[in-house]
Amino acid sequence: AGWIPEQRASAERDARRLIFRGLTTVEGTRTGTIYNSVYVLPSASAPAKFDLLIVAVREDLRRLRPDEHIPLTSIAAHSDTGDWNDHRRLLDGASMGDDEAGGHDPRSLVIEELCSSPAPKLELVNLGDSSSVVVSSESLDVNEIATVTFGWRINEYFSRNAEKRARSQHFSFTASVPAECMTVDLFVHKDFPLGGELVPAVSRVIDVDHRAMSQPPPPETRDRMRAPALERLANSTTALNTEDLRGCEAIARHATKLAGVDLDSFNVHRTRIEFPMTTEVLTIWLPLQSGDKQGS
Question: Which pTM does this prediction carry?
Answer without folding.
Answer: 0.89
